[in-house]
Write a structure and sequence with these properties.
Layout lengths: L2 E6 L3 H12 L4 E7 L2 H11 L3 E5 L7 H11 L3 E6 L6 H8 L4 E3 L4 H12 L8 H14 L12 H11 L4 H8 L3 H15 L4 H10 L6
Parallel strand pairs: 1-2, 1-3, 3-4, 4-5
Helix pairs in contact: 2-3, 3-4, 6-10, 7-9, 7-10, 8-9
Length: about 210
């Protein structure tokens, strides 16, 4: 099945470059480009892509607001485009529903891989940039709230702890000495019980509740 993508960035060369790379893939089709957040929201509404790439900083409606609106009103999954400098806004996009982040200087193969991963329902939590952003955000802005975890079984709490460390399903399976199928069930239960959209939000929750790093 072809993965539909919308690319939104106010820099035409960056936007066009990403679009060209993705459109060259046999399983990916760029349905539209947008130069600001409002146009991105409208493009998603019109084309219903599986994935939208959103620059964090755009004129008018920025990427965070666009992400919030898109993720709350559609099944489209958002990946933020950012730099690793002092971009404070990237933290807020986590709670807006973003499924991951890409640096503007991302390699061609990593860009394509990221789109496929997010389209498949996973999230970009393994790269160190995502974990560092999440850890810094939650350490500075959130107090532990372990009461949120009351609905989880002991094994589900262990799974959430390992998600907070950025482990993949295979790595969690090895850590817990269970099958990957069992891990998928635990992850699904964690997301469902805690009302989380995906693994990125699970990582946030692990930090917010004090599980990460334990």
């Amino acid at each position: 099945m072809t993965i539909g993508v919308v690319v939104a960035d106010d820099q035409e060369l960056v936007r066009g470059g990403f679009a060209m790379i993705l459109d060259a893939q046999p399983d990916i089709e760029v349905l539209a480009e947008a130069g600001d957040g409002a146009s991105a929201v409208e493009a998603v509404r019109r084309h219903r892509p599986q994935v939208v790439l959103l620059d964090v900083r755009m004129p008018g409606v920025d990427g965070i607001e666009a992400c919030r609106e898109i993720c709350s009103s559609s099944a489209t999954r958002a990946v933020m485009l950012t730099t690793f400098d002092s971009d404070e806004y990237v933290y807020e996009s986590l709670h807006a529903g973003a499924s991951g982040f890409l640096l503007k200087d991302v390699r061609r193969d990593d860009l394509v891989h990221a789109v496929r991963v997010v389209a498949a329902g996973d999230a970009l939590v393994a790269p160190s940039v995502a974990r560092r952003l999440i850890a810094d955000y939650t350490r500075r802005r959130r107090s532990p709230s372990p009461g949120r975890l009351a609905a989880l079984t002991d094994r589900e709490r262990e799974t959430l702890t390992l998600l907070g460390r950025g482990l993949s399903n295979a790595e969690i399976a090895a850590e817990l000495v269970v099958s990957e199928h069992t891990v998928k069930t635990h992850v699904s239960n964690v997301l469902s019980k805690l009302g989380l959209r995906d693994r990125v939000q699970a990582v946030i929750c692990a930090y917010e509740t004090g599980l990460a790093g334990t």
